[in-house]
Every structure is written in C-alpha cells, then in structure tokens.
C-alpha cells in the first residue's frame, strides 16, 4: 500500500526548524507521490481518556494536519501505529488498547484532516519521525499496526520477527480471527521498515482489513477486546 504524498506540508517557507526535532524529507518516485516532512509542533493537553494508567500520561503534539501521541513506559515492548487517526482508521485505537492493557510503550501518528488524510501516508520503510525511531530503537519487541483494504475480516502478518509472528498467528486463529498470508508488498520484510529497526533487528507488522477495523470502532462489538486479548497472549505479557 504505497502512497506518496502530493499535498502534505505544502508551505515550505513557513516551516520552522525545531532544535529538538529533525526536519526530514522523503520522496518516492511512483505515480502519485512526492514527500513528507516533520514540522514543528505545538503542545496540546492530552484528551481525557489518553492515559495508559495512573502513572503514564500520553504526550500529544499537534502539527496541524496530523498529531503525534506517545506514551513511554519502562517496557521493552513498543506498539506503534504510524498510519493512525483518519489515515487507516482503527489502528490507533488498537495500538492504544493493547498498550494500555499491558503497560507497553505507545506511539501513533494520526491524520486529523477533514479530508484527504490518505496523502499523509508515509511508507513504513521511509517513516523516520524522530520520536518513533527513538522508541523503536530502544525496544526489544515491536508491533506495528496497519490497515489494509478488504471488506472481509482478516489480518495479514509480516515483519522479520518470524517466531513472534508465528505466535501472533496462532493466538489470533485460536480466538477465531482469520489470518492470511501477506502479499509481498505488505509483508514488512525490509530492514528499513520501522518495525524492524529495534534492538533485535525484527518486529511484527499487522495489516488489518477495513472490515475488521470497522468492527474495532463499533462500540457494541467485542472484537477489539478479543483481538487485544489474543495479541497479549501472543506477546506473553512481555515486560
């Protein structure tokens, strides 16, 4: 699901370089895209529900078109959703729910535009937002949550941490979820993919269908709770 940004951050003269935040430019020569930069943020108070527990607060930074939210714990596990918010809906919610249950480190990059959030999509192998890179680099286990197309309810599993990927597949299957072999372009096998840039050189990437993610967002559905339980079991509640 490669998409290149044609409209994001179209005002370079107004970009302020923050001393604590690198401004990065990505470009990929495909049919529809150009690149993305990470701009200076303004601090926002976290939303009322945005806390992993009584001890961990979610840090929220707003960049206009998107937000970055992080929750840092003492865990060696990081759960990230780099296409969150309105880019691939349901991914931030799942990442947060899993992190909250297990006290894992949490990161999400959320599209918050009224429209055209797809243009905020940055390919995983080119995603180098500093806070995300730092969190992943300090983790031993990394789970990256993504969304893919498909009206059915299924999950593709990829990434270079094949032992953990196998455990995730077994757990999801045991809980009644459908797991399919990931197509090559969604397999998350590049060492440059952010999920594989942790201390062990490999993580697990989940690509969750639109149909299943819609279930996660249904307040009356138990799918999100069951999915989180399956992932927690696969991770073995790793500290």
TrEMBL record:
Q: Which InterPro entries match?
A: Gamma_PGA_hydro (IPR008585), Gamma_PGA_hydro_sf (IPR038128)
The entry's keywords: Signal
Under the heading Pfam families, the entry gives: Gamma_PGA_hydro (PF05908)
Could you tell me the superkingdom of the organism this chain comes from? Bacteria
Q: Where is the signal peptide?
A: 1-33
**Protein name listed in UniProt:** Phage-related replication protein
